[in-house]
Each structure stands twice: as structure tokens, then as C-alpha cells.
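Task card 7
Instruction: Convert sequence to C-alpha cells.
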Amino acid sequence: MPVVGDLRVLLRLRSFRRLLAVRLLSQSADGVYQVALASYVVFSPEKQASAAAIASAMAVLLLPYSLVGPFAGVLLDRWPRRQVFLYGNVLRAALACCTALLILGSAPEWLFYTSALCVTGVNRFVLAGLSAALPRVVDKERLILANSLSPTAGTLAATAGGGLAFVVRLLIADSDAAVVLLGAALYLASALTSLSLAIPLLGPDRDERQVRLGAALAITARGLAEGLRHLTERRHAARALAAMTVMRFCYGALTVMVLMLCRYAWSEGDPGGLALLGLAVSASGAGFFVAAVVTPWMAGRLGRFRWMAACATIAAILEPALGLWFVPAPMLVAAFVLGLATQGAKIATDTVVQTSVDDVFRGRIFSLYDVLFNVAFVGAAAICAALLPPDGRSAPVVIGAAALYAAVAVLLFRWRGTDSAPRTGR
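Output:
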């Protein structure tokens, strides 16, 4: 198969393999850390979590980066990306250790959320930098395959990290602090791995030397305006981001619903709820893996927008058919379907953005991409807080998500004529 041959070529590229290793270690640490947070916030026996409490936690952790995201993009377009990976992961390791100490010390919740907020904040820089650096280590002809392998492998690594956290939490140490420390060790490993990459290799391409932080912040507003203007001139990228944002909104709403179902409707105790959540995460991860396998072939045959439309259509049909039962087995199948649809669409979106925007703007555009993800996810959680009953069973949430998926599919189908499989630019 041609895809297998291209994949072998990618893995023979030393710089690509090293950048991939940085991503895998970093995102596996993310998975460990996120499970620890979910366990502490949602499944702690002393906490009676509600949809509103979950939404509040997500808002605290994600919404501030709707403001930080554009700043991150401007800085990423001026800072050496290799150094962002190195210092960013070292900082996250230190902050994760602080989070573990706060859990052990039963610190006030606002202090715990502040620490977690800092960890996820640095994550904005690292993930945006990884996406912006990918075209520097892969030729344009194999970029869509690299997008199917690299971000999806990172997502699978996060899923594996989450699974490892579940194992540690349920079988080895019944301590959220121990899980957080495991994440800190993985962040440090990612930082050390980044040292194998040369600083000039990952860019960005700029003639001037690295600017001071104060100078970079002083021109942030102008840089953001330039990035937005650049995005409006790239019709393909703007449309793909809009569609992906709506799909992320749906995914966020259904994630909160599953959390509530695992906490209250499907189990009587903490271990049972965590085990079911672990199965849901694993099922979604399996969908991510299948998306990585089929997307290069499907996008090559259908075109990127047609493939995104197909993903949205699959979600629109199967999500209500499986989810309205509100029982574990069909919902786990739905988690697989949504993992496949969401990741398949994201791979195509990443490629559209990377091939439609100039290198000097990629950091800003991917930071804006990240901001849209956060706002969509938190907005979905806020709406779920108003709609979800205490046990998490809500037909309006399931049907509303299906309707949004269908609307996205219709729009993407209308835009199909603007995209073709061989095209790599605007």
C-alpha cells in the first residue's frame, strides 16, 4: 500500500522521529495529569460533583487561555520552538509537583486550580509549537500523512497516559498526588528528549534575533490583527476551523454528559465510575487510531472537506442511535464513533491550516485554533450545566449534538467544490 510506504519514509526521517517522541512523551503526561484532575474534581468521595461544578472547573482551567492564546501565538512566532519544548516541559514538571503537594496538603480549591491552570497554560505553547514545527521536518507531499500520524499518535499517547493513570489510581496507589507525580516525570522526559533537536531546525524563519518578552508583548495587538487578517484571506483555513469548532462543541457537551453518567448513573462507587470512564477513554482512543489509519486514504480519495463532511455525517447518524439508550455498552460504541469522526476531521483541518497559511503566521493561527477549541469546549460544558439532570441522562443534549453535526456536514458538503485531494495550497 502507498500509505504504508510513505509511513516508512516518515519514520526514517530522524528529525520527524525526534519531534514525534517529544509529542508522545508530552501528551502522555497530559493524559496522566488530566485523569488525576478528573479523579480529584469529579470522583473524590468527599465531593458531590454536579454538571455546574464540572463546567466551572473547565472554565477555570480553559477560559483564561482565550486571552493567553493569541499572546502565545505572537511569542511562538518569535521564540525558538525547540526552546519552547525544553523550558515549557521543565516548567510543567515543576508545576505538576506543586499540584501534588497541594493535593496532599488539602489546600483550598482556588490554590489547586491556580496550579492546574498554570500547567494547562504552558500546554498551549507546547501543542501549538508542535503543530507549527511539523512542516519543518516533513516535505509537503507527505504532510497530510504526517498530520494523521503525529497529532493522532499524540492523542493516543494521551489516551495511553490516561489508561496508565487509571491503573495507578485503581491498582497501585489510591492517590491522585501519586498520579500527578507520574505526569511530572513524563513532562521531564519530554524536555530531555527535545535536546536531541537542533534549535534552528524547528524555526520560525526570522531574520532578527529573539526579541525580549516586553517587546513581544508590546506588539501583540498588531501581531494578532495581522494573524486574523491572514486567516480571513485563507478561505479554506477559516472554513475548516469553523467546522472543527462546532464539532469540538458537540464533543465537549457529550464529554460532560459521560462524566456525569459515570459518576452517578452507571456506578454506585468511585472505583466503578473511574473504571467506566477509563473504558470510555479507551474506546475514544481506539477511534482516534482508526482515524489515523483511514484518513490519509479517505482524504486522498474524497478531498479534505468531503472527508470532514463524511465524519460529521457519521457522528450525526450514529451518535443519537447509540447515545439515547443511556447505557454503558452502546455509549462506549458511541465514544469510538465520536473519536473516529472528531480525529478524522481534525487531521484534515490541521492539514488545511498548515498548507494554507504562511510559516511566519503558523504560531498565531494555531494558537487561535487552540482558543476556539477551549471556548467551544467550555461553552458546551456551560450549556450542559443548565440542561443535564443530576444523573447525566439528557435526550436534548444528545439530539442537539446530532443536529449540530448534521448542520456541519451540510455546510462542508456545500464547500466540497472548493477543495480537491491533490491541492495543497489555497
